[in-house]
Design a protein that fits this description.
This protein starts with a helix and ends with a helix. 51% of the residues lie in helices and 14% in strands. The protein is α/β, with parallel strands linked by helices. The protein folds into two domains: 201 residues, 3-Layer(aba) Sandwich (Rossmann fold), CATH 3.40.50.450; 47 residues. An eight-stranded mixed β-sheet has the order 1-2-6-5-4-3-7-8, with helices on both faces.
């Protein structure tokens, strides 16, 4: 009992509210999953957590085109009235958060609210909270995130969202764990591979573009030579056939 009182007192000093399913600020969709946390540590704007959310997740080592695509999508979702929810990780997560700070975004933490990971995203979290955003965690204060905590965090991301967008995820990555969580629940999963591929093509290096152009030119010349050779062979065959017919007529 004393430990619980101490935890609640420390949480109040940190601006954290512990909410149960059904209370204002506990995302309604999150309460629908089978293993919904009985208590959720919430910091920030409760009203933001009650609005429709879309999750954007992906690789921590995403390409420049992937980061740009994630940011553009997050901005457009914010303009359409959605809250972007993600895991505050490096790569795609931070790109989605930064692009949607103005419209509202939710960071889901793997550790306690005083154990931000990665540490360099502490300023990003502060900016999120300063702009009517929110941060949520099921872990107590002082809990340092461990490897097994990230899949648990990912189920909160997919559980709270209407849908999950995956950008440049590696095989068996945490992003795909999030996506599988979305498929298991009443929500959809989108993998914009074609859009990301088109973005990579648009932003490919000039040297690579030049090599591609030369390769296409060589293939075109080869096809032309092949076509000309086939036409010459056909012409020779027709000439031989005419000569045979003329000899037969004279005979």
């Amino acid at each position: 009992m004393d430990e619980a009182k101490a935890e609640l007192a420390a949480s109040r000093k940190f601006g954290i509210a512990w909410l149960a399913p059904g209370e204002e600020g506990y995302p309604a969709r999150l309460a629908m999953i089978d293993d919904a946390p009985p208590l959720l540590a919430v910091r920030g704007e409760n009203a933001t957590l009650m609005r429709p959310m879309i999750a954007i997740v992906g690789s921590r080592n995403a390409s420049g085109a992937g980061l740009k695509f994630a940011g553009q999508l997050a901005r457009e979702l914010g303009e359409a009235g959605f809250i972007v929810i993600s895991g505050l990780a490096r790569g795609v997560d931070q790109a989605a958060h930064r692009a949607s700070v103005a419209s509202g975004t939710v960071a889901v933490l793997a550790g306690g609210h005083d154990c931000i990971y990665p540490p360099e995203h502490g300023d990003l979290l502060t900016s999120i909270l300063d702009h009517q955003g929110a941060a949520i965690s099921e872990m107590p204060l002082g809990h340092e995130p461990r490897a097994r905590d990230f899949p648990r965090r990912n189920r909160l991301i997919s559980g709270a969202a209407l849908g999950v967008v995956v950008v440049e995820a590696a095989h068996r990555s945490g992003s795909l764990i999030t996506a599988h969580g979305g498929r298991a629940g009443p929500r959809s999963v989108r993998r914009p591979r074609l859009a990301a591929r088109s973005a990579r093509r648009r932003h490919q290096r000039p040297a690579q573009a030049g090599r591609n152009a030369r390769h296409r030119s060589r293939r075109h010349r080869q096809r032309c030579r092949t076509d000309h050779g086939a036409a010459a062979d056909a012409s020779d065959q027709r000439a031989r056939q005419r000569a045979v017919r003329e000899r037969s007529a004279r005979a």
